Amino acid sequence: MPNNPTQPPGGDTGQLGMPPQYVSTSQAPGLSQLPGQGRMYGPPPPSDQRANYGPSPALGKGQGSTQSFGPPPGLPVSGQTTNYTSTQPVTGQGVNYGQPMMSQGTDYGQPGLVGQSVQQAAPSSGNYNQPNQQFNANFGNLGIQDTNRPINLLQEKKLIPDTGVETPRPQLESEYKKVNTSPEIFRCTLNKIPQSQSLLNKARLPLGIILHPFKDLSQLPVIQSSVIVRCRSCRTYINPFVYFVDQRRWKCNLCFRVNDLPEEFLFDPVTKTYGEPHRRPEIKSGTIEFIAPSEYMLRPPQPAVYLFILDVSFNAIETGYLQVFCQTLLDELDRIPGDARTLMGFITFDKALHYYNLSEGLSQPHMMVAPDIEEIYLPAYDGLLVNMKENREMIIDLLTRLPQMFEGNMETGSALGPALQAALKMMNATGGRITVMQTVLPSEGPGSLKSREDPNQRSAKNVPNMGPATDFYKKMALDCSAQQIAVDIFLLNGQYVDLSSIGIGSYM
Questions:
Q1: Is the pTM for the entire model greater than 0.85?
Q2: Exposure pattern of 455-493 as b/e (b: 16+ CB <10 Å)?
Q3: Tens of pLDDT along 332-383?
Q4: Exposure check for the chain: N or C terminus, fewer CB within 10 A?
Q5: Strand, coil or helix: what is 308?
Q6: CB-count exposure of residue 168 (10 Å: 0-12, 13-18, 19+)
């Protein structure tokens, strides 16, 4: 809106003050005359001339008078338009533009009309059609976009599209791109590493490494050697970013210690040449695979072992998960990774432990109940972990029977701790993977917990239940890690289960 109500619209027939390049229609073919007005309107100056122009003392007629333009067409006007004033003189009548110039080719509508529709000047040439369309499209996109709207994580679960999210790639020089590991295999959660722990704490961002081993099997160099070269100080593996002082010494790229090269490293197994360490696969590739010698092994290579620990207490049966779990495992039984030596076993628990003998000579699975959960023992040494190929029918029979076996179970206790202790005893010699399905707070035997949730302390600075209540599960995790046992815990709870205490068992 104009700020000068005494000047009638269309009363002055002189040209409005414009930059020199837009004074006449011959200089700017996009000028046109609005209907019922004597003023000439044209496109504003380019984007680099965004100053708002005020009156010039050298202008004759209209000297000292000002006039204002409202916002460009398409923008809503609320209240009075703010005038932006500049002291830069321009040719023609002094004009204050009510809105900064946005881009070349924009047509301003008819000024000074209150309550009337705004008209745009139609350019006489097609030179400004495309900028006008882009300008209007840009203003049409000024509203709140769908990507910026608040998201309710409790209602919207599917935030990542089915096609996935493109992995960000680091901007590296060409010489480093050839040897840098692909972010699909190895990448950090942060693009910049904080300089100090305090800065990381203030940022409140997770710092970690995401690994996907063996994703590049088609291009993965495999090295079989009795010597694996590592830094004597920080134990960093020799890699493409180290510096060779000479053919006998190399400097670590992390701690900068100078190390000696063993004689074996001077031989290139690919080209069968000697004396060129920079041509070794360890120096030419960011990802390599070693066939490690025996001194790097805790034990000889073992078969894949899968042990499932299932909660069958009253609350677990009420959730109905057991039927779904057994049916899903039956459907995926042939897709479980492993070979002809793969072993499988099952433990169920409520306030007692239930073992299952799946030996091939039995007519059906045999359940053994161990009510003593203070001192864990194994009721049998054979038949608890059986070959998945040879005892396939027995495994299928057990998965079919399990939902009916515990239907109507009224035991509410949960002996998760003793079940984990029994699993460690069963897999101590081979290692493997333990899968735990838990639905309630453990309440029986070692590792039992009590509810610590206090609604009054949720906003406190130090919330006690954010840390573990006992170190039982941490010790259990360390013992499993020492025997090469991985633990996966799936919580299907409907109430408080003290995740900060239980979850540490799968973090280690």
A1: no
A2: eeeeeeeeeebeebebebbeebbeebeeebbebebeebb
A3: 999 999 899 999 999 999 999 999 999 888 889 999 999 989 889 899 888 9
A4: C
A5: strand
A6: exposed
pLDDT tens across 119-145, in order? Answer: 444 444 444 445 455 544 544 444 434
Q: Can you give the C-alpha Rg of the chain in angstroms? A: 38
Q: How many CA atoms lie within 13 A of 80 on its CB side?
A: 8
CA-to-CA distance for 344 and 364, rounded, in angstroms?
16
What phi and psi, each to the nearest 5 degrees, are found at residue 476?
-60, -40
Helices H / strands E in the chain, number of each: 11, 18
370 SS3 class: strand
Measured torsion, CA atoms of residues 189, 194, 200, 202, in degrees rounded to the nearest 10: -120
Handedness of CA 411, 415, 420, 426 (dihedral sign): negative
Sequence-separated (6 or more) residues with CB below 8 Å from residue 325: 310, 437
For helices 392-405 and 321-331, what crossing angle results, to 10°? Answer: 170
SS3 472: helix
CA separation for the pair 67, 37 (Å, rounded): 15
Number of other CB atoms surrounding residue 264 within 10 Å = 11
Q: Which two tokens stand for residue 208?
A: 């970690």
The sheet carrying 258-260 orders its strands as: 243-246, 249-251, 258-260
Chain centre distance of CA 363: 49
> What is the CB-side half-sphere exposure of residue 490 using CA atoms within 13 A?
13
